[in-house]
Amino acid sequence: MFHDSQFGPQQGGASVSLWLADSLQQAPAASPQDWRTRLREWADEVDLVPDLGQRIGSLTWFRGLATCFGLCATALYLSPAFEAIPGVPGPVLSSGHYDEVRSQMITPLALGADSGRHMGPTDAVQPLRETPERPQIELSAQVGSSDTLPRALSRAGVSSGDVATVMAMVGGDIDAGVKPGTRLDIILGRRASRDRPRPLDKLAFRARLDLDMEVTRAGGVLSVRRIPIRVDNTPLRIQGVVGDSIYRSARAAGAPPKAVQAFLRVIAGQVDLGGIGAGDRYDIVTEYRRAETGDVEVGELLYAGLKRARGKSIDMLKWTKDGRTEWFEASGVGERRGVLSAPVSGRLSSSFGMRRHPILGYTRMHAGIDFAARYGSPIYAVTDGVVSYAGRHGGHGNYVRIEHGGGLATGYAHMSRIAAASGQRVRRGQVIGYVGSTGLSTGPHLHYELYRRGQVVNPLSVKFTTVAQLAGGELAAFRARLAQYQGLRVGLHDNFAQKAATAPAALGK
């Protein structure tokens, strides 16, 4: 810290010392008044509150530190005590004073709105004989995801008798149940007495995409009114070019998620999805029902097409033949059925033939092949068939046998748990059990056998395929349907006589 004085810019401490020495030499016999004047001038020159961030460790810095501690100690010494300030409690009102105060209150305070004290009634107040009820109660309920119409009505307060009457009237129109999320507009009327439920005066809900229903009470009797809604069943067709992802490209074009997932499953059975690259064109046709109110329902996938820049193009159409619905190629060739696939996800650990039994200790015929797999892994039926046996089977442990027709059958042994029942019809790839180590087994694995006319054969030596093939008039009808789908224009179709008031936007081109 520096000070300007008559001696020039010098350090504060040095300037004060020189000033005092000079003053004493010049006036050694000064009067008391002069001394007071000189001390006042000296105090003006001395800085009692220097900057503690400068010249740390000097005498000036220590003088400032002492000043700081002195001021803090003085403040603490002079600070007041932190004690509660005593107050005078309010007087307790007598009953007479209380009635006097109550007579001067305004109504909200008298009812306890602000003070919280409810005042006793005066002689002018008379109790009601009965509380009046609302003549009607209007409710809005919703059917839950795993709910039924009767349960939703009961939760809303509809009596069991009215619920039974409503279901008797509308049950034939909602065989499959009401769609989850359906809104129920309910009006309950005045009840005859307090011990009886309110009667149902009106119920309105959407029974199906093409049907609105209103149940009303007239003359004490419930009646139903069915309001049909026009629905356009024209399938929805969506085409586009594959970008970085076929799923994202189809969704960006407006394809419903359900349709895109079904499309990918069909295409995956024909080509490797990883081989589909940018520039390939997809073609999707799906069931699409649109009501004139704007509500829509997305149905099953009908057609799956893929035009590839490199590689084989795909045209797959869903068709029903002999009561079985499956996918057919454009040539009329259906899915391959009966192809023996791996019954479990695992590695081949033991082959068919003679071997030394790991438990019995002698050489004998191993009438199947073993797959080493993790405990609890699902076991699949290698092809379609009927379960002829499911249960405990000696050294096989938990065992399932499936008859596939044509004298062929398969057996699955050592299961930890069986997921099929005797007499059940199973499809290729259906889970029939889980890997275990029951019976004569040294660890979790699947023992798989193949029978031909009752005799065991090597499962690796037999492969059979049955392919559905359309011909004649059925093939012509199939090709006509294929041409119909391929001729659809892309996007939504407005086939109503009058345009729907709330028609949804097009799903993309």
TrEMBL record:
Its EC number is 3.4.24.-. Residues 364-459 form the M23ase beta-sheet core domain. SUPFAM superfamilies: Duplicated hybrid motif. Keywords: Hydrolase, Signal. Pfam families: Peptidase_M23 (PF01551). Signal peptide: none annotated. GO terms for molecular function: hydrolase activity. This is M23 family metallopeptidase. The lineage of its organism: Bacteria, Pseudomonadati, Pseudomonadota, Alphaproteobacteria, Sphingomonadales.
